[in-house]
Amino acid sequence: MMDYLDVVIEDQVAHVRLNRGRSNALHAPMIQELDTLLQQLDEDPSVRGILLQGKDGFFSAGLDLIALYEYDEHEIRALWVNFIGLARTFIAVGKPVLAAINGHSPAGGCVLALCADYRVMAEASL
Q1: Are 65 and 31 in contact (CB under 8 A)?
Q2: d(Cα 90, Cα 116) in Å, to the nearest integer?
Q3: Quick check: is 39 in a domain?
Q4: Which domain covers residue 112, as residue numbers?
Q5: Domain assignment present for 7
Q6: What total number of domains does the chain contain?
Q7: Strands across the sheet with 13-18, in order?
Q8: Residue 60 maps to a domain
Q9: Is 11 left (phi over 0), alpha (psi -120 to 50) or beta?
Q10: What are phi and psi of 85, to 5 degrees?
């Protein structure tokens, strides 16, 4: 059971939807959840590709500055180590990864998109 990601595997493609609030802002638990999922999908022989998407209007707003403001020094250091680890995991996935950028994607959201092998941008429906 995942708290911040929705996953559907269809026709050997894992459709991963970021699902945290309106803007999919990243915080420590979501970063860990995405890292773990990417590793699992990479090891799953029934998955031949991964599609990462956000919600209409927001792919990901990047790091959740409001949540991070509450982190102590240890937690913020761990967050950065885990975020860099997520980027490393994402880049190392041995299957094609497509980022469907259907909305805003600043800062950390842009980093996620850049880690994908392919990026497709589309205007969100109004």
Answers
A1: no
A2: 7
A3: no
A4: 13-21+49-126
A5: no
A6: 1
A7: 5-10, 13-18, 49-53, 97-101, 118-121
A8: yes
A9: left
A10: -65, -40
Give the three-state DSSP class for 37.
helix
Distance, CA of 53 to chain centre: 8
pLDDT in tens, the chain (126 residues): 799 999 999 999 999 999 999 899 999 999 999 999 999 999 999 999 999 999 888 899 999 999 999 999 999 999 999 999 999 999 999 999 999 998 889 999 999 999 999 999 976 554
100 falls within a domain: yes
User: 64-75 burial string, b = 16+ CB within 10 Å, else e?
Assistant: beebbeeeeeee
Q: What is the CATH number of the domain that holds 78?
A: 3.90.226.10
